[in-house]
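Study this one:
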Amino acid sequence: MTETMQQIALKEYCEGPPRPENFELVEKPLPIPNAGQFRVRHIWNSVDPGTRSRLSGGDSYAAALPLGKPIDGFSVGIVDASENEAYPVGTKVFCAGGWRTHTIQTGKGFIGTIPDNVPLPLSLWIGVLGVPGLTAWFGLKSVAKFQAGDRVLVTSAAGPVGATAGQLAKAGGAAQVIGIAGSDAKCQWLVDEAGFDTAINYKSIPDLDAAIAEAMPEGVDLLFDNVGNEMVNRVLPKMRLNGRICISGQVADYNLTPEETPGIVNTKPFITHRVMMQGLVVFDFAREFPVALNEMATLIGKGELKLKEERFEGIEKMPEAFCGLFRGENFGRRVVKVGDEA
């Protein structure tokens, strides 16, 4: 058995977009579980845009990560040593494992077992069946109060959260689902595979406001935003009466200082159109996770929920996979294989 493990730690705080040199690969002794604990050998790790909020040295909606500490993230793995009878050796789990090859877990917090009778790739449990999919589910249904007949606009729509949210809206009877993405290939996939009515490539059109207005002439009931304040400010005048805005992510704002972050100035629709805006931290809905996961797994099994993955090999690839998120290079969920599935 390997007597050491590897992890990616924060070497220096990020200023602006993260760079691979902000991180370092560290080797540590393999941890041994104590009473009540078990060790998970990671197979797949995720890279998540929201992690950026902890990497500048200042607190955001989560506390700043100290230098030298391993980076947060989600993992799928298998229990390879256990002092906890609820998690015997061989149990497959998804958990908040971070950018590591092994972690010690207690069974508390974000962790769940993966049933053997669900014939889906393990990596999906940190994608559409993990935090991204759950964020889409609860952001759409619980926060934005989606209703059949809604006209829905999704930003960063080719990402795992946006693509899932749009497809769930279509499955729920939306009158219209429009996505905004950053390439023709992404837009084509959203329409041809994910079933969006239309997708707008914001990088190739001269006037995004006009393109949204043309695609949604009757206005927007529900904005599912993953981008940030500038996008919210742009869409607010297009909101319909009793419209709802879900703030799911702020990928365009994560690299900005508070002074650089755009303000929201088009506030009149909050009064005139009774618009509601709310954000979410998906763990607020943890007790309801099993229901959402079961329903999404069923949709995947029926071929009614499409997904896109980008796979990397080796824990040393995690910094570059993460940094590419902020250059707009990703097309779907980015996962990194750090261990053998056998």
